[in-house]
Amino acid sequence: xxxxxxxxxxxxxxxxxxxxxxxxxxxxxxxxxxxxxxxxxxxxxxxxxxxxxxxxxxxxxxxxxxxxxxxxxxxxxxxxxxxxxxxxxxxxxxxxxxxxxxxxxxxxxxxxxxxxxxxxxxxxxxxxxxxxxxxxxxxxxxxxxxxxxxxxxxxxxxxxxxxxxxxxxxxxxxxxxxxxxxxxxxxxxxxxxxxxxxxxxxxxxxxxxxxxxxxxxxxxxxxxxxxxxxxxxxxxxxxxxxxxxxxxxxxxxxxxxxxxxxxxxxxxxxxxxxxxxxxxxxxxxxxxxxxxxxxxxxxxxxxxxxxxxxxxxxxxxxxxxxxxxxxxxxxxxxxxxxxxxxxxxxxxxxxxxxxxxxxxxxxxxxxxxxxxxxxxxxxxxxxxxxxxxxxxxxxxxxxxxxxxxxxxxxxxxxxxxxxxxxxxxxxxxxxxxxxxxxxxxxxxxxxxxxxxxxxxxxxxxxxxxxxxxxxxxxxxxxxxxxxxxxxxxxxxxxxxxxxxxxxxxxxxxxxxxxxxxxxxxxxxxxxxxxxxxxxxxxxxxxxxxxxxxxx
Length: 551
Hints:
Blueprint: E1 6-7, E2 21-22, H1 39-54, H2 57-63, E3 71-73, E4 78-80, H3 82-92, E5 98-109, E6 112-121, E7 126-136, E8 139-150, E9 168-170, E10 190-194, H4 209-214, H5 223-230, E11 234-239, H6 273-280, E12 286-291, H7 297-303, E13 306-309, E14 329-334, H8 337-347, E15 358-362, H9 363-366, H10 371-388, E16 391-395, H11 399-428, H12 434-444, H13 448-468, E17 473-478, H14 491-511, E18 515-523, E19 526-533, H15 539-547
Parallel strand pairs: 1-2, 3-8, 10-11, 10-12, 15-16, 15-17
Antiparallel strand pairs: 3-4, 5-6, 6-7, 7-8, 9-11, 12-14, 13-14, 13-18, 17-19, 18-19
Helix pairs in contact: 1-2, 8-15, 11-12, 11-13, 11-14
């Protein structure tokens, strides 16, 4: 540990300025004290944003540079000079309430910065503010600004998605498979169930037709299915999964690749691929899935959805075909934050909501993402931190230690997967996708000594991560290392993308922690998730970030 840093679990109270924590180990350089840009500039920008929403004309005037060369433009005209801008603003009134989604920041010169902020209004319309900020004797002020807005686009379900055989093993019919109880918070919501959960009267297919043919008809619903039904949701169909949930691609060799409406021509990600496609296509409102190594977070990121991987064992796995029991969790996918909160709320036990005070950024983790994915994540995180009133603190993580954690996770996951499904794989390995079969075979090669050694590494990693994330502290990272790869990409590309993403997703998995994926980042026109990891049981605190008013 370097002398000027401190362990994250001992981060001081928010009143102490600019904490410089580290997770574990040290890189030797120390963390960046301002990982997302000059805090004074971001504070001035947030002051401007609040003044704009509140129509605080004096504060807005103070934040625009004085003189006759200051510019303010929109789609209709350009105002030149501080006095003309102030007169326009005084006669205009306030602007509609909006929520920041991304804040892009580029330094142009010493004391000069370009800031581009994206936002969404309550009516679904979007806007972009482009501002040049200059630092002078009075602090940071806007010297030029341009504002543009776009009306909300109507959302329409994708034609044919309700019967698409690449999405559904049991497609929606005239009546729900399981109608919801009346009067619950999810009344009217349609649920696509991942083909690992028991639904009474149906078989579990587990992504493999040979498995499905031999499976018995279920006599009772899985616990998670039952909880959503009791909350009022209708189970409308059973959607495909990658084979035995042992993939992150979403391309099932038996059923095909489900479409990704948010990124046409790109994969959905797996293994909760079918539910993700159904929700993104608008033919389901909730996707009920599982997450062992990223199977909620990856499709959420690729398909532009909200996703929550719950704390390990917080939601019952009764009635579920598992993969690696030390890491398997139940999770949900939705198109909007409010539905995610209601769906997850129906599954989770009661827990106190703790406001987020600190969001930690680890350069070694951000560096695992492709450069454009990193920039997109940082833009989304700036907006979230400003809305939440949370400070962003940098931290260190020794890359070699991270590599050892990942290797241990893969070893234990593969060993447990083999222990769970070795009977089926031994008898029907030729009926599995070659890549999936290879993962099972790798698990068969793990001997007891190696498994015990890896388990010890994971125990230490879990202690470090849990200790690093006390109440009110979250870890931010990209949900995936890149936007969704193209359908039919070469196997080497798919595997390299999978390996890079697993190094990000394994942290929450190995420690049994909840992780939220927010569809706030964007690489070109492709969606990308902003990931937020909390301590054990912080699920409801993570969800509160989605619905709280800006501070």
